[in-house]
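Pasting as-is:
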Amino acid sequence: MLVNDQPLRIQAVISEKPPIARYFHILPPAGPIELLDAATGAPSDMFIVRAEHYTGFVEIDEFRNTVAEIELEIPTPTGATTDDPSLPPTDGVYLTAADVHAKFSGDDLAIILKNIRHRPFADPPPQITFVGEDEIESFDSSLTATAVVTSIELGLVAVEFPVELTGPVTTLASGKRGNTTGTFQTEMVSMSLTGDLGGLPIEIRESPQMSSLGATTITDLGGGLYQIDSFFDVFTEISIDGSGTWIPSTEATRVELVQPGVAVISPELPPFAAGQAGSFFDVFFEIDLGGVKYYARDPSHMSTVITHKPPAPGDVYQSTDRIQLYDAADQATGMFITAARHEPNPLTTTEIVGRQIFYNNSAFDGNTPGPDPMDDQAIAPDPSTATDPSLGKEALLPGETADFQNYTSYSKGINGLMIDVDGLPPGYVPTTGELQFMVGNDSDPSGPGWSPVPLPWSVEVYAGEGDGGSDRISLIWGDGEIRNEWLQVTAQLAGMDQPDVFYWGNAPAEAGDSMGGLPTTSTTDARVTTADLLLARNNPRAFLNPAGIDFPYDFDHDQRVNTIDVLLARNNQTSFFNDLKLISPSSAPAGDMAAAPAEETSQQGQAGELAWVYEAERLRASNRSSSNDDAKRAVDLLLTLWQ
């Protein structure tokens, strides 16, 4: 590369702002400017004698959203490049290969750690001591991985947790003292890392019985840079009970040193040409890989035929040029840009097209607490697909008044939602501010009766798996976190001009004011009474005739209606004071919820064993303290008669 060590003065008289003029290079008094070799500073015998720059017509186009995609060809990692030959190499990270895991097997559980990244901390700096010719390095480090836990208590279902641990490590390099280059036999002498595994403390240590050996080679690349190639075969032990029990790994886990980094690419493209025409840009990319910058000497020729001014969705600039990347020392890296794509304004509108609730951790999704492809089978059908429209479920929207179709009777509460969205950008994952959640039980969500709910512990985006090919966002809360109340969801995702607000309610064991036949949509209350208990008792389902997903008396959604559902109705009875309110979130003020309830007309004309239930409900309001105990005794008696 050739450079000039004197500036070029380019000047003109401009008459417009921004300028539309021709700029000429003005020679300095000393004459032409000689170009120098960038690496050595030596003269090249080449000179700049004239320079000209014409600005042309300037148009600035701004785009709200763009998507840039660049494919990189990166060779297999072989160590790290650094300007410090000291060990440990704090410019690198030790990784496991894609098919290499740390495996631990105990009496009632198995743990696999995959995607392990172990990195020494540069601050505080490692402490170096010597024993003879050997060098001992003591330092703090962090380890991140994905833990796959399988246990008997989980029903042998594999559950994944992200883990991050920190703690001290000591390594030994044989014969390293006083040497900055060479190959050294290494050993991880000790490691003690602590962190969190799904709410439980987790500890990992280097095995006290087995030696964790490796090797490190340091090569002088010149120019103050060194190449370090290093690996360890590490025997570890894991504990999740506070060091009470240590489970050894079944074999050594190999970790190898690589240069850390994830591609973060944000090219800026110049203004676009006007009208419908062939269009191209020769773009010089600079790419950041984990804080290390690489650049392309040659441009990627990105071209298309534009059909809008400025370009709009469909006007996609692409390049298939294979462009070498260079590092800060101007050395070829062996990495190449092999393709580049740029689409201005890929989002026209982002629209929520589906708001669904599903019974997570039920028989319909295989009783899996985490996200799973079977979750789609646990979605409550909407009124158009339910066995009876009154049994279907749909979200409550602002301006509507709640009824039986807007809340579930699931005993585990609201623990799973699906949001289907059209127009999300590729690879999109919603951020904390784009999805907000409140819980309450009155018609004034802005009032003191509403409060934030814990964020879902799982948020997954399934591209193209929603209704009509939309993207599906899956949200999962813990069982029982949201019960007997309303959940307000406010979504303002990328590309949405206005937030989308909707509500789901939960009244455990509430069957929908059924009287004799199918449930009828409740227009009076969502109260759980002895009537719900009797309806569960009188509509049993067993192995030979399992309950469907919209069967209203299967409160725990295990496809059976039995004593458990009867007990759920008994133990979740509510009154006017604590039942789920049938809210009207956009119009009814919170104070209206304290008004006297409407007369219960649904009881009229009912006879037989349910008639006394509604009479008992009237009496309960005047004598609640004793009637609760009486109801439980009555249920116990009924259960002894139900064979």
